[in-house]
Specification:
3-stranded mixed beta sheet, globular, homotrimer, 6-stranded mixed beta sheet, alpha/beta, 10 helices
Chain lengths: 255, 255, 255
């Protein structure tokens, strides 16, 4: 990992990461949570969900000013394995301090939809954003049924949420899903410079401002998440969903 | 019509269109509702309003996966004739499946504002978008007082809704009113290709996802429509509105 | 002032401005409120706040169709002096007619956040938009914690509201904060032409349409303002805020 440079440092002495699917470290007032299954493109497992919830709880309480989520290797995250994930969006909705996504490569599924709950989203130009819900017979999650139309309008949101359009980083930036796009060669260093500067700002001012900005939408976000999970659980039990998933993997197997 | 190519087919045998102002057909899981008064630039009459409500009700219940609204000839729609149209936005708010606008030419008035209630809006580069409410002494309708500011922010929405700015297709796309713009020469074929592909996606996944995405805003849309209609009925009875309309048509007559 | 050209005229006879920090005039159905402390970059004082509230009340009731706010000299407004300003956003939320900001130069702090409550925002290319809240240990005001994320999405709003990013006029226009940007050389004349044309539109149609468009968000705007003010009063009493302000001015003094 050392070769990838900032923003993630080797865990500082005394901050032993107790996670098996994540690398968590705190340095310079920045807590970095790194999805760490690079050989599986950081696909989210049940264990990773649970660890991510715990890591967010801990980061919310620790002394850091800024919290960063990123991925190990070439992918940001390839999504999840059809797991029930009611509680994951709530951990993001409730997170009390500035939360920054460092999208170091392609992002798929719930790792894309959850970006709508981050405060800042930095992306390498190599990143892509793909939510193939209907292709797999499913329905939107991660509060995206609320955050995406609010952010980009129905006409743009539905390209992604209904019709499986994969966005480039530049397109995602134009739609408001991404704050800024960087060349891949300088991505890690430019982003690290910014985040380090942010971490020196008055911590209470940042945390209280974030809570003010996000506070008014919280009830709607909880409601959106509840409705999405309910619908998705129904979907998973449907023949249509099962057949869509089988078709998808059969098509893949033929390649 | 044959020369215009897809996405509209000649009515399939057994699906006789019973409308006089619309052409409605279903093929390949796509129901297409075509405003069919090309000699009047598809201006909406009371009859067309009623037929449109009926056609949407039928399309909502039929076996199609995707529903498309488009216009015959060179215009999409030149708006309405000052008719009371309380129920038209409700037919769009309640439509249960993906609804796609194929804006084949200039759009005026309520045909523009209603675009905020579609799931996807494809436009030819030749299309324009014009809502000259204050010029005619009137006020916004079609839920645009709610959907336009939500989609593009007040500063952009008010250029259209207060100050009669006519947008090009490219401008409308930048503001989030239009999903994508196509060259006029390939518009019909490119759009038809996409819609056919969409119609093969799992139907329940699409319909349930659409309901999820649109569900949370429904109450606000009903409220916006009620307020808009109330205001507009007042406007129509005002001297100011009457004089603005007379001035408009007198200026036109001089040309 | 005469050299600056339109849209502001010398006060018409009989409309004597009774303000000491503002120049207010009405001509051609346009009331122009000009922040008039150019030697202080139009920084807002307690007196200016009170006069602005009064001027808006009067403009809301006078015979003008359009109301314009702009600044004297090279700056639009350099923000406020840490004054309690609960009532200023309410004067904007409640303003009953179209309100246009003519941003004639750089804008800072509350003069930027309040732009989210205008109906139209025209800016010279020379304008910049800066809300350095966390740098000064403070938190967002002017309803920006609600209007900015609604307008541009969280990922863009937080660059400004949390992390002090200064936007160019072009960037502000891309984010929906600004309606349109003009070259500095033709700014005043182009804007004056438009506003004069707007002022000839049916006045009731404009006022009632504006109320319709803004009405649904009013309760949320009041709530946002109340929360922002409560938070900000806390901030002002905090050591963190005091130290951030001292650091800021010490750094300035060293230059």
């Amino acid at each position: 990992l050392a070769a990838e440079g900032p923003p993630v440092a080797t865990p500082a002495p005394g901050i032993a990461s107790t996670f098996t699917t994540l690398l968590v470290s705190t340095e310079d007032n920045i807590t970095t949570i790194r999805l760490n299954r690079p050989e599986k493109k950081n696909a989210i497992t049940v264990e990773m969900y649970n660890e991510l919830i715990t890591a967010l709880e801990q980061a919310g309480k620790d002394e850091s000013v800024i919290t960063v989520i990123t991925g190990s290797g070439d992918f940001y995250c390839s999504g999840n394995d059809l797991t029930n994930f009611t509680k994951i969006p709530e951990a993001f909705i409730d997170f009390p301090k500035p939360l920054i996504a460092v999208v170091n490569g392609p992002a798929v599924g719930v790792s894309v939809t959850l970006l709508g709950l981050f405060d800042i989203v930095y992306a390498t130009e190599r990143a892509t954003f793909h939510t193939p819900f209907s292709q797999l017979g499913q329905s939107p999650e991660g509060c995206s049924s609320y955050t995406f139309p609010k952010m980009m309008g129905l006409a743009k949101a539905n390209e992604m949420l209904l019709f499986n359009k994969k966005l480039t980083a530049t397109q995602a930036c134009a739609q408001g899903l991404v704050t800024e796009v960087f060349p891949d060669s300088s991505f890690q260093s430019e982003v690290a410079t910014r985040i380090k500067a942010y971490a020196k700002l008055p911590r209470n001012s940042l945390a209280l401002s974030k809570q003010l900005i996000c506070g008014m939408a919280k009830e709607r976000l909880y409601a959106a998440n509840d409705q999405e999970v309910e619908r998705l659980v129904d979907r998973w039990q449907s023949d249509e969903c099962m057949q869509a998933i089988m078709s998808f993997f059969q098509a893949k197997a033929k390649l």
